[in-house]
Amino acid sequence: MPRSRDELSRLYRDLYSPVLTFFRNRGFSPEEAEELAQETFLQAHRGWTGFRGEAERRSWVYGIAKNLWRNELRDRGREKRSAQEDSLEELTEEKRARLPTTEDAGQPSPHETAVANEQLRAVRAGMGDLSPVQREALLLQTDQGLKYHEIAAVLKIPMGSVRSLLHQARRKLKRYLKRRFGRNGY
Prior knowledge:
By secondary structure, this protein is mostly helical. The chain is built from 8 helices and no strands. It is about 75% helix and about 0% strand.
């Protein structure tokens, strides 16, 4: 069945922001995330006439995004192996420039920023204890709001496996955070 341009436009409107968030939550800069999100929809546009509707459109787009993410990680690994070292001083200055200042209206205090950063580091460190597929399933659910059947389609695994992966991932993350922060977590 031929797909209309209106359907593709609607898909873009509905999913562009979540796909952008998908890349941002995986550590890409705003510019890189924007570029990858655009590439996702460029590939969706190119493949639109061949989309047979065997998967939900949302899952199909996330599958494209996931493949781009994997390709980018692979390419970065290659670059890393052949890259020159950056100056620690330059990196520190860059990081300092991105921190909020107390003069910014409505910005959190330095203490709040430090606590939030520590919590985020703890969660990310805890996610390092998860298997890659557990981590991916958890990110698809929490960051992208995908449902079990959509995660199953993106990961190409049975829905029961998704439930099991998410249960195990939450349990491992909870144990890690309890060890790190004590009985009551944060």
